[in-house]
Design goal:
Layout lengths: L1 E4 L5 E5 L11 H14 L78 H14 L3 H6 L12 E3 L9 H10 L3 H6 L3 E3 L11 E3 L4 E4 L5 H5 L6 E4 L5 H4 L9 E4 H7 L4
Helix pairs in contact: 1-2
Length: 265
């Protein structure tokens, strides 16, 4: 039995958890499913097919011809020659090891990144990830601050789906003892490497997941909380429940969402 709380954090009733919360935790299956889902979102990439080839450079290595490179201790690359600026005269081009040459082994846009996942495996991974939200050790292992929480998962009355203001949802989270968690998700750090130049300068924390039956107004309230998400129970995925393929995300369920999970076999 687990408690259902109201918006003031007080217990109003006890309910039995659905069988899905008794599913064995399969971290290997969760990771495999997560990687398969991420591969479906991956965008093909690669250089332009003419990259490094837009040049008038040509070969000068034939014997017994004018401007030959024979016997002049010069590598026989394709080189610029003719009406060009002086400092580019005899400049090597095209070959991968030359300045401005073509890429040697570039990524191919036609490469297929798509990973397949069996339907039974995918469903079992979702059930396993749902069950992991009720295990306090796994939630703490992910870094969530839930030491003040008596029991998991956190189940709230259906009125939570109608909250539309961020201040109200913050007040509710503080009342149930998640003030430290709210402080934790505010932190961010600068990414190492070239990702800083590619629109992903900061690495942010993963916060609370709200699972609801109908997203009436809650999304509007939660979207201002860093790292927090709202998802309908019918749209639950390993991507939501186990970001990075690691189970145990701190999750708050509405009572209707728990009732929906009772139908899951």
């Amino acid at each position: 039995m687990v408690s259902v709380i109201d918006l003031n954090g007080k217990e109003i009733e006890k309910i039995e958890l659905p069988n899905v919360f008794r599913e064995p935790i399969r971290e290997d299956l969760i990771l495999r499913t997560f990687l398969a889902i991420k591969s479906h979102e991956r965008q093909p990439y690669g250089p332009n097919k003419l990259s490094g080839l837009r040049t008038s450079a040509h070969y000068h290595g034939e014997r017994h011809t004018r401007y030959t490179m024979m016997n002049v201790e010069m590598a026989r690359h394709q080189r610029l020659h003719g009406k060009t600026v002086p400092f580019l005269h005899w400049q090597a081009r095209i070959a991968p090891q030359t300045k401005g040459g073509r890429p040697a082994h570039p990524p191919l846009p036609e490469k297929d990144w798509y990973q397949k996942i069996n339907e039974k495996e995918r469903k079992k991974a979702i059930k396993s990830a749902i069950a992991a939200t009720s295990i306090k050790d796994l939630v703490i292992k992910r870094g969530h601050k839930v030491e003040n929480i008596k029991e998991l998962p956190i189940i709230v009355e259906d009125k939570i789906e109608e909250i539309s203001k961020t201040k109200e949802i913050v007040d509710f989270l503080k009342k149930i003892g998640l003030e430290e968690e709210l402080e934790r998700v505010k932190g961010k750090k600068v990414r190492a490497g070239k990702g800083k130049m590619r629109g992903r300068r900061y690495k942010k924390k993963i916060g609370i997941l709200f699972v609801v039956m109908d997203d009436k107004k809650l999304l509007k309230a939660v979207k201002n909380l860093p790292g927090c998400e709202v998802v309908k129970v019918k749209d639950l995925s390993v991507k939501h429940l186990a970001p990075g393929g690691k189970p145990g995300r701190l999750t708050i369920f509405s009572k209707k969402a728990i009732e929906f999970l009772e139908k899951v076999k």
